Amino acid sequence: MIFPVVSTHNFLKASGDNLTRSIKRSGSTFVVGVTGGIGSGKTTVCNLFHELFGIPIIDADIIAKDVVKKNQPALQAIVAEFGDSILTESGELDRPKVKKLVFSDPTRRKILERIVHPEVRKEMNVQISRVSASYCLLSVPLIAESTNKSMFDRILVVDCDEKIQMERVISRDKLANETVVAIMNTQASRKDRLAIADDIIVNNGPTSQLNDQVQSLHETYQALPTADN
Ligand code: ADP
């Protein structure tokens, strides 16, 4: 996710107007935002696009961690704002501490977002500009919670039943039931996420059921025009 602390917001929904989004796009690469709740199968789906068709994946979670690494301007700005007690002994960002610090304080959370989000967006744009494929996937767990959807030409939601979602997260992350429920409660509801979808991949069955859905969407995305053609 862009930064875990933003997930308590329940922001506006996208217009869902595919045409508007694709016309707005100025670059030559078509950007598909991939979103879904924790454990819905975003990573699994993105990996399939990559394995089957070599489609590049840009991962907001990874970028969000990279931009606050040691010596990065965002980390320096965070320290300037919150003091160096939010650093570990080795000078890294103490993520649990920051989370705690801003979790119940919307003002602090906004400050943090104002520091981190532009850096994340900047790096996403750099990575998008390097893509030579006709389209790329931009995996952003919190699209439904974020107001800025202008980066995406299209939004793909990976959806699965909440019961299955919980089972998969518990099995993957070895978390307690209540912890998974608490995380899910900080994310957009399934209904809100589906409301912003241009495309939906249903991930209730075995992974073998994903191939056809991925193949069909790949064909759709390849056929979509970008602003340059
Ligand atoms: P996300 O990236 O949305 O958090 P993942 O792709 O990591 O979700 O999937 C969550 C867990 O569920 C992973 O351990 C993954 O291997 C598993 N998983 C995903 N899709 C399926 C599926 N269709 N059948 C069985 N396990 C799945």
Task: Describe this structure as you would to a colleague.
With 229 residues, the protein is an alpha/beta fold. It has one domain (16-223): P-loop containing nucleotide triphosphate hydrolases (Rossmann fold, 3-Layer(aba) Sandwich). It has ten helices and five strands; from the N terminus they run αβαβααααββαααβα. Bound molecules: adenosine-5'-diphosphate (ADP). Residues 36, 38-44, 168, 172, 203, 206-207 line the site of adenosine-5'-diphosphate.
CATH superfamily membership = P-loop containing nucleotide triphosphate hydrolases
Q: Name the ligand types.
A: adenosine-5'-diphosphate
| The number of domains | 1
Which runs of at least 5 residues are low in confidence (pLDDT < 50)? Answer: 1-26
SS summary, helix count: 10
CATH class group = Alpha Beta
- The whole-angstrom Rg is 18 Å
CATH architecture: 3-Layer(aba) Sandwich
> Numbering strands along the chain, what is their spatial order in the largest sheet?
2-3-1-4-5
Estimated helix fraction? 40-55%
| Strand element count | 5
Report the span from N to C terminus. 32 Å
Structural class: alpha/beta
Biggest sheet overview: 5 strands, parallel
Shape call: globular
Give the topology, please:
Elements (H helix, E strand, L loop, with lengths): L17 H7 L5 E6 L6 H12 L3 E3 H7 L6 H10 L12 H9 L2 H24 L5 E5 L14 E6 L2 H12 L3 H10 L3 H6 L3 E4 L7 H14 L6
Parallel strand pairs: 1-3, 1-4, 2-3, 4-5
Helix pairs in contact: 2-10, 4-6
The chain binds adenosine-5'-diphosphate (ADP).
The site of adenosine-5'-diphosphate (ADP) has 13 residues, from helix 2 and helix 7.
